[in-house]
C-alpha cells in the first residue's frame, strides 16, 4: 500500500497543450513532454494519495498510473511525501527595477548614427544585455576602440553579444585577443564567413564563424527548440509579459528607436529624441504585456512558456495577436516543419518586400 502523495519539485512547472503537456525543470534547464492525462492528475488530484488515485481511476489503469509515478521519481521531477503541505509553491511573480533589461542595436558602421550616445542612454536605463549587429564590414581596430569605450562608460551592462561581418582581420588569434581584453562580450558571431567554425577563447567565450549572409534585420524571428529558455526568470516573465519584447529597446541601422529593429514602426531617431522619453509612451510599452496566452495558436501550445515570441513577422500582419510567421510548429498535430523547406519563405518575401530568400 502506498499512502504517500506525489509532489512536483517547486522548480518544476506544468504547461498544458492541445495534444500533450510538458513539465519544465527550471533548475536543470530542461523540459519533459507528458500525456495530458498526467497533467490532469497532477493538477486536479493533489489531495489524493497514490493509492487513492489508482482507486479513483480503476485497477485497469494501475500499470499506466504507476508508470507515471515512476517517471516523475526517476527524472527527479517529483518526490513522495506524507506531508505535501510542508512544500509550498514558489512565487511566480516577475518584476525588475530596470526600466530596460535588454536591447538590440543595429549598425551599418560606427558612423551610422551616434551609437555611443545610444549605449550610454541604455546604460542609464539599467540595460544589462545588448546585442550589437553589424551588417557591413567593421574594422578590427574600430571595434576594439568601441568596446573600450563601452567598458569605460557603462555601469549596468553585464553582457554584450556581437554579430559582426567576417573579414580576414577577424582570424582566430585576433578574436581570442579581442575576447580576452573585453570580458563584457559573451558571444561573438562572424557572419558571411567563407567557412563554418566554432571556437572558444581562453576565457571560455564562444566565437563562431557562420557562412550565412546576414545583411539586414529581416534575418530575425525564427523559433526553434534550440532557442527555448527554461530559466526561472524567463518562465516568470513570460506568464504576463512578452517573452521577446518586454523591457526591450531596438535601434535600427539608421538610428531609429523601435521595439525591435525588424519592426516597421519607429518612435524617433537617436540624437533627436531620448530613449527614456520613448519607453514611457503607451504605444511603445503596451506590447510589453502581449503574452503567449493572448497570441493565436500559441495560446494552445505546450511550448508557450519556454519559447520566444516575434511580433515583427507574423502570419497575419494586420493582426497584432497573430502567430509568429517563422514558427514551424503545429500544436494541434505536435509536428515541426523544417523551416529550410518551408513555403513560408515565399510568404515572407511577398508580405515584407524581401528580394532575397536568404532568411534564417
Secondary structure tally, helices: 10
Beta-strand percent range = 15-25%
Annotation, overall tally of beta strands: 15
Largest sheet: 8 strands, mixed
Summarize the structure.
Strand 2 and strand 3 form a beta hairpin. 25% of the residues lie in helices and 19% in strands.
Provide tags for this entry.
360 residues, alpha/beta, 3-stranded antiparallel β-sheet, 15 strands, 25% helix, elongated
Write the layout of secondary structure elements.
Blueprint: E1 5-8, E2 12-16, E3 21-25, E4 30-34, H1 36-44, H2 50-57, H3 62-74, E5 78-81, E6 102-107, H4 115-124, E7 129-134, H5 140-153, E8 159-165, H6 172-181, E9 185-191, E10 197-200, E11 206-209, H7 232-240, E12 248-251, E13 257-258, H8 275-279, H9 282-285, E14 329-330, E15 335-336, H10 344-352
Parallel strand pairs: 6-7, 6-12, 7-8, 8-9, 9-11
Antiparallel strand pairs: 1-5, 2-3, 3-4, 10-11, 12-13, 14-15
Helix pairs in contact: 2-3
Describe this protein's structure.
The longest helix has 14 residues. This protein is elongated. The chain has 360 residues and is an alpha/beta fold. The C terminus is likely disordered. It contains ten helices and 15 strands. It has an eight-stranded mixed sheet with strand order 10-11-9-8-7-6-12-13. Helices cover 25% and strands 19% of the residues.
Amino acid at each position: 500500500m502506498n499512502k504517500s502523495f506525489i509532489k512536483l519539485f517547486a522548480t518544476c512547472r506544468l504547461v498544458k497543450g492541445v495534444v500533450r503537456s510538458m513539465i519544465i525543470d527550471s533548475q536543470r534547464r530542461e523540459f519533459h513532454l507528458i500525456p495530458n492525462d498526467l497533467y490532469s492528475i497532477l493538477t486536479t488530484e493533489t489531495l489524493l494519495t497514490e493509492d487513492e488515485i489508482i482507486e479513483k481511476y480503476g485497477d485497469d489503469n494501475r500499470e499506466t498510473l504507476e508508470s507515471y509515478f515512476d517517471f516523475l521519481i526517476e527524472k527527479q521531477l517529483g518526490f513522495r511525501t506524507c506531508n505535501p503541505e510542508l512544500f509550498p509553491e514558489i512565487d511566480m511573480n516577475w518584476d525588475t527595477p530596470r526600466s530596460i533589461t535588454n536591447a538590440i542595436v543595429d549598425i551599418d558602421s560606427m558612423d551610422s548614427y551616434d551609437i555611443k550616445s545610444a549605449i550610454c542612454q541604455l546604460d542609464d536605463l539599467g540595460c544589462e544585455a545588448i546585442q550589437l549587429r553589424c551588417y557591413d564590414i567593421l574594422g578590427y581596430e574600430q571595434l576594439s576602440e568601441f568596446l573600450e569605450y563601452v567598458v569605460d562608460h557603462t555601469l549596468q551592462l553585464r553582457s554584450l553579444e556581437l554579430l559582426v561581418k567576417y573579414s580576414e582581420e577577424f582570424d582566430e588569434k585576433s578574436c581570442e585577443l579581442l575576447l580576452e581584453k573585453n570580458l563584457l562580450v559573451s558571444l561573438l558571431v562572424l557572419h558571411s564567413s567563407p567557412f563554418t567554425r566554432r571556437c572558444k577563447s581562453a576565457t571560455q567565450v564562444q566565437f563562431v564563424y557562420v557562412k550565412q549572409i546576414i545583411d539586414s534585420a529581416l534575418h530575425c524571428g525564427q523559433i526553434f527548440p534550440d532557442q527555448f529558455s527554461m530559466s526561472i526568470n524567463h518562465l516568470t516573465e513570460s506568464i504576463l509579459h512578452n517573452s521577446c519584447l518586454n523591457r526591450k529597446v531596438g535601434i535600427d541601422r539608421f538610428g531609429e528607436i523601435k521595439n525591435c529593429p525588424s519592426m516597421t514602426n519607429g518612435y524617433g531617431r537617436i540624437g533627436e529624441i531620448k530613449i527614456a522619453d520613448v519607453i514611457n509612451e503607451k504605444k511603445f510599452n503596451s506590447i510589453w504585456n502581449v503574452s503567449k496566452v493572448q497570441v493565436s495558436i500559441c495560446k494552445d501550445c505546450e511550448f508557450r512558456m519556454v519559447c520566444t515570441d516575434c511580433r515583427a513577422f507574423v502570419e497575419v500582419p494586420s493582426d497584432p495577436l497573430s502567430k509568429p510567421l517563422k514558427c514551424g510548429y503545429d500544436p494541434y498535430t505536435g509536428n515541426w516543419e523544417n523551416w529550410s523547406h518551408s513555403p513560408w519563405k515565399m510568404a515572407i518575401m511577398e508580405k515584407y518586400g524581401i528580394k532575397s530568400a536568404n532568411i534564417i
